Amino acid sequence: MRERAITGVYETVLYADDVEAMKAFYEDVLGLRLVDGPDELSAAFRLPDGGVLLVFHPGRSGQPSRAVPSHGAHGTGHVAFRIPPGTHDEWRHALLEHGVVVEREVEWPRGGRSLYVRDPAGNSVELTADEIWPA
User: In the predicted model, what is the mean pLDDT of residues 66-70?
Assistant: First the structure.
C-alpha cells in the first residue's frame, strides 16, 4: 500500500482584472513560458519545475457553471519564485531594465535573501534563491 502524501504544489493562482497585462509581465519580464491564453478568463504559465502559475480574472472565475468549481479573490496576493543561486544582482538589473521597481530587498536571519516587486495587479512577487524557511 502506498503512503498518502502531498508531494508539492501543482498550481498557484493569482487574480487580476487585466489578464493581458499579467501575461506581459510574467512572460516578458520574468521569462515564464505561456502555455494557455491569454483570454478574457485566464492565462497559464509552466514553471521549469513542472508547476503551473495561473492568472484568473476574479469576476469571471467566480461565476457558477464552469467546468471547475468557481473561485476568485479580490485584493493583492503573494507568490515566491526560486531563482538560481547567485543571480539576485542579475535579476535586480533585469527588473530595473524593464522598468520594474524593486520594492524591497530582505536579508533573512538564516542567510537567505529575497527581492520583492509588484506585478501589474499589485500582487507581491518574491524572488529568492535561498532556503528561508526551516527544513
Answer: 83
